[in-house]
Amino acid sequence: MRRDNARGFSLIEVMVALVLGSLIVAAAHRAFGSSADVTIRLKRERAGHDLAMNARHYLGRAFAALDITAREAVGFNGDASAVRFGTRAGGAGRVAAVRVALLDGWVVAMPDSGPVRPLLPAARLMLDYLPSMGADTAWIRGWQSPASAPVAVRMRLLRRDSGAVDTLLFIIGPRG
Which of 91, 120, 149, 164 is the most buried (most CB within 10 A)? Predict the structure, then answer.
């Protein structure tokens, strides 16, 4: 038998190289695939956080711009599950009535004129009203008045996903 000077690879060397290459490719796929999953999850969490912050900003502005003294004002009517009041937060310098309530698993703002605005997802909405400032003042479950408003509104939301309760506190603007 005659042997050539050109050296090749044995079958075992080729198989070892293929196995090592496939292990490296599998590890790289796993590392980059999990980082893509983390990126998608972060984007989803960020969108949820942006939604919550926009809702809190809107509600804070609406309660701070509450106006029950204007001619077109609707007063302040709230119970444990919904509240309706007039606010100047919509712009144009006029008072618009807004109702905040739970609708189809969402806390929504329903202006008398305009589309329903979904604010926050929730399984339950619980509202309380602070009648005056003071250490001994208790929160009450309802407030109906054509001429005055509470000092603050406490909004408790039972979260759908975790069952936790988020508490939001909104200070009322001019009270009339």
Answer: 149
Domains of the chain: which residue ranges?
A: 47-171
Beginning with the edge strand found earlier in the chain, give each strand of the sheet holding 124-130 in spatial order: 124-130, 152-158, 165-171
Give me the residues of the chain with pLDDT under 70, please.
1-6, 70-72, 91-93, 174-176
pTM, two decimals, is 0.74
CB 106 within 8 A of CB 121: yes
Dihedral pair phi/psi, residue 77, rounded to 5°:
-130, 110
Residue-wise pLDDT tens digits, 65-74: 988 876 667 8
* Cα 68 from Cα 87, distance rounded (Å): 8
Asked if residue 142 lies in contact with residue 126, where contact means CB atoms within 8 angstroms, the answer is no
Q: Alpha-carbon distance 38 to 59, whole Å?
A: 31
Residue recorded with tokens 């050539």: 4
Q: Tokens at residue 57, please?
A: 């900003």
Q: Which of 60, 110, 104, 121 is nearest to 82 (CA)?
A: 110
pLDDT tens-digit readout, 120-144:
999 999 999 999 988 889 999 999 9
